[in-house]
Design brief:
- It is a single chain.
- This protein has 4 helices and 13 strands.
- By secondary structure, the protein is of the alpha+beta class.
- Strands 6-5-4-3-2-1-13-12-11-10-9-8-7 form a 13-stranded antiparallel beta sheet, covered by helices on one side.
- 26% of the residues are buried.
Length: 247
């Protein structure tokens, strides 16, 4: 009798969990993944990206430019972000200005001015979000979502279908066009606030269709633009890529 009650409770709980993802949302998540490459995106285990980032002052004037190297290892749930001065990239062995790394075991920060230190919690969460948000987050389709729902709406001046998805504690509100292509995403970022990013210039790389340009607004103001310069799909990444600085 106790086993029957426990089994019934488990089934009820499972039903409630399933109910958190509406059928329409599940269908749209699968369509969005299909548009970005389907199986090729689902089988993305490692990712390498070099991006030129332009940052803006509140009055719209350019403030600075930084080149970033992003490494994502989905299998081991680790992310590394290295920041470079664009002028230093002409040398044979450029040294980053700073780097951040996240893994479930250890997260740290390093820069030329400071010693190696633990990554603050809010920055740790932001880096961890690379595994579950943005266009990369659509690799999961409708699987392993905590909640998902669809409503009509808009992000800034772009209207469409808003797909709100909760994954590993991160809530993304995706804006999709009628075909299911990702146009934009809204996130609430710890210590930053509301962040809205628009994605454009989609190109296919080894079967994965990914945006090569993005534009980010924080608090309703243009904060940054980015252009992807290099992409590698499923590169071989090892400890040499995720090394920990000595000091």
């Amino acid at each position: 009798m106790i086993k029957r009650i426990a089994a019934l409770a488990w089934m009820v709980g499972l039903g409630l969990a399933w109910a958190q993802v509406s059928p329409e949302a599940a269908q749209l998540l699968e369509r969005a993944r299909s548009v970005l490459g389907g199986a090729a995106l689902a089988n993305l285990n490692t990712y390498r990206e070099v991006t030129t980032n332009i940052y803006y002052l509140p009055d719209g004037k350019e403030e600075s430019r930084i080149v970033t190297l992003l490494l994502v290892d989905f299998s081991n749930r680790r992310v590394r972000l290295e920041l470079y001065d664009p002028e230093s990239l002409g040398s044979s062995n450029p040294i980053p200005l700073a780097l951040q790394q996240y893994s479930p075991q250890e997260s740290f920060f390093w820069s030329r001015e400071t010693s190696l230190r633990p990554l603050p919690q809010n920055q740790r969460e932001i880096l961890r979000s690379s595994l579950y948000t943005g266009w990369l987050g659509l690799k999961y389709g409708s699987s392993n979502r905590e909640r998902a729902s669809v409503t009509p709406g808009s992000l800034r001046n772009q209207a469409g279908r808003l797909l709100t998805v909760s994954t590993q504690g991160w809530v993304s509100t995706y804006l999709l066009n009628p075909d299911g292509l990702l146009l934009g995403e809204r996130l609430n970022i710890p210590g930053v606030g509301e962040s809205i990013t628009f994605f454009t210039n989609y190109r296919s790389v080894q079967g994965v269709r990914l945006p090569h340009n993005w534009e980010n607004y924080v608090g309703g103001v243009l904060a940054a633009r980015g252009e992807v310069m290099e992409v590698e799909i499923n590169p071989v990444l090892g400890e040499v890529d995720f090394f920990k600085p000595a000091r």
